Prior knowledge:
The complex is a heterodimer.
Chain A lengths: L1 E5 L1 H7 L3 E4 L8 H9 L3 H8 L3 E4 L2 E3 L10 E5 L6
Parallel strand pairs in A: 1-5
Antiparallel strand pairs in A: 1-2, 3-4, 3-5
Helix pairs in contact in A: 1-3
Chain B lengths: L1 E5 L5 H11 L5 E8 L3 E2 L2 E2 L3 E5 L3 H17 L3 E7 L1 E3 L4 E9 L2 H18 L2 E7 L2 E4 L4 H13 L1
Parallel strand pairs in B: 1-6
Antiparallel strand pairs in B: 2-8, 3-4, 5-7, 5-9, 6-8, 9-10
Helix pairs in contact in B: 2-3, 3-4
Amino acid sequence: xxxxxxxxxxxxxxxxxxxxxxxxxxxxxxxxxxxxxxxxxxxxxxxxxxxxxxxxxxxxxxxxxxxxxxxxxxxxxxxxxx
Amino acid sequence: xxxxxxxxxxxxxxxxxxxxxxxxxxxxxxxxxxxxxxxxxxxxxxxxxxxxxxxxxxxxxxxxxxxxxxxxxxxxxxxxxxxxxxxxxxxxxxxxxxxxxxxxxxxxxxxxxxxxxxxxxxxxxxxxxxxxxxxxxxxxxxxxxxxxxxxx
Lengths: 82, 152
């Protein structure tokens, strides 16, 4: 399974703050995971097209970041703290 | 060093005391407190709320402090950031940097704030007339962070 978390606008637009998905064979990058999520709904497609950031196991990552079973992958908009 | 998030009011005096206790032999402490402004580009606001990523937010802040410690030879440093609702004029973030000399402490505090705005998972919403709107990331914040990254 892959554990997905969302924050801020990504959470609100997708309506899913966390979900666990089985990791299909051959899916081992963030970019491949994004394609799977985009197929879930138009809302997911919208947030993923929108300059979304990601973290793998709580470290900032990018489309090429490797993912494996039991990883935590988070999607969120550019940060605005401080 | 310490990096924390809290939904309680910030106690700047307590953090300052804590930093001083950790910063043996420091010759300078620079602290920064960010406050909630009561307006944005469109007019008055009624406060903000902050969302964070429990675990990653603290880890990202600690990583930033470690970077600052190396780069500016700090004796110690700390960050405390609010989450949840923060009213107008209330402190939202506290940063303290202790170094042997003032220049390093000033620079480190600026570095930590510039990088925090770019790399720590926190998201602001502004409340206005019963509505709440997510704050968009600012190009000027991006540029401030890039300035430090390009220096390396």
